[in-house]
């Protein structure tokens, strides 16, 4: 569609976020070096190319590009299996402990089931014993302590950084409210709370960026990519413009372009 001259084509703004959520409350993942090792073990770019085509944008934090608080200069976790193995060894991660990875069954997710095998292979390459769990109840696998990691997609309810930071990483949202890995960090809470009380846009953006930086450094999950959608439209539509948040045609502004 993008190559055709008879239709309009555009990529939507970010509509969701994909990560591997880590059960942070488990003592095996209490050391931040273990959580960072899992980030260094995955190559999100190659993974996205294999399963998400062009609709994935590499996540370097939890705030999408184009939103206040996003840091375009932040360096992503490098794909470095050797560093990942060293961090696991330094943190004393038990080599005989199985890493339980929960994945959806076929047709339960927008990505093919093969993504689970690709992630498993990446973790096994750094010496981990991975148990791949496919279950219809995968969304509750963390809360029921049946898994250590969960492939989770987050679709926010409103187009603001708070819709990513608060439900996914604030301790008040730990559990079923969105923070499935029950990540808790007092500094993250403080920065998010401060951003919610700040009315000045510039100061709020600084607080959001600081909160996102803290989240990224604490690595409560493996940061994968933001999700966007492709939009094709007829040139017969006059006056149409894409929404800054919702790419679907829930609202159309039409103008007459003459009779055919």
Could you describe the largest sheet, including whether it forms a barrel? 6 strands, mixed
Q: How many E strands?
A: 8
The share of residues in helices is: 25-40%
Gyration radius from CA atoms, angstroms: 20 Å
Report the span from N to C terminus. Answer: 23 Å
The count of helical stretches stands at 7
Quickly give the structural class. Answer: alpha/beta
Q: Pick out the low-confidence regions.
A: none
Overall mean pLDDT score? Answer: 86
- Classify the beta-strand content into a percent band: 15-25%
Order of strands, widest sheet: 3-7-2-6-4-5
Précis, in short:
The protein has helices at 32-41, 44-51, 81-91, 114-124, 162-169, 186-197, 201-218, and strands spanning 7-11, 16-22, 56-58, 98-103, 129-134, 149-154, 221-227, 230-234. The strands form two sheets. A six-stranded mixed β-sheet has the order 3-7-2-6-4-5. It starts with 6 loop residues before the first strand and ends in a 26-residue tail after the last strand.
Topology, pairings included?
Elements: E1 7-11, E2 16-22, H1 32-41, H2 44-51, E3 56-58, H3 81-91, E4 98-103, H4 114-124, E5 129-134, E6 149-154, H5 162-169, H6 186-197, H7 201-218, E7 221-227, E8 230-234
Parallel strand pairs: 4-5, 4-6
Antiparallel strand pairs: 1-8, 2-6, 2-7, 3-7
Helix pairs in contact: 1-3, 5-6, 6-7
Tell me what you see in this structure.
By secondary structure, the protein is of the alpha/beta class. It has seven helices and eight strands.
């Amino acid at each position: 569609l993008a190559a055709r001259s008879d239709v309009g084509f555009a990529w939507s703004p970010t509509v969701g976020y994909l990560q591997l959520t880590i059960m942070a409350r488990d003592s095996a993942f209490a050391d931040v070096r273990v959580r960072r090792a899992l980030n260094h073990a995955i190559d999100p770019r190659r993974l996205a190319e294999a399963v998400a085509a062009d609709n994935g944008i590499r996540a370097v934090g939890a705030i999408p590009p184009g939103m206040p608080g996003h840091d375009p200069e932040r360096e992503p976790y490098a794909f470095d299996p050797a560093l990942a193995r060293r961090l696991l060894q330094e943190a004393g991660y038990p080599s005989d402990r199985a890493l339980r990875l929960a994945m959806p069954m076929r047709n339960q997710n927008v990505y093919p089931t093969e993504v689970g095998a690709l992630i498993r292979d990446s973790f096994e390459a750094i010496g981990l014993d991975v148990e791949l769990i496919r279950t219809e109840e995968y969304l509750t696998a963390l809360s029921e302590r049946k898994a250590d990691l969960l492939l989770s997609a987050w679709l926010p309810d409103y187009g603001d950084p708070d819709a990513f930071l608060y439900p996914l990483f604030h301790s008040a949202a730990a559990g079923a409210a969105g923070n499935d890995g029950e990540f808790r960090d007092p500094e993250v809470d403080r920065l998010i709370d401060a951003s919610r009380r700040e009315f000045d846009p510039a100061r709020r953006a600084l607080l959001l960026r600081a909160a996102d930086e803290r989240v990224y450094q604490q690595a409560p999950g493996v940061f994968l990519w933001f999700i966007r959608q492709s939009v094709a439209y007829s040139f017969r539509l006059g006056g149409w413009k894409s929404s800054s948040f919702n790419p679907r045609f829930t609202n159309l502004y039409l103008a007459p372009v003459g009779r055919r």
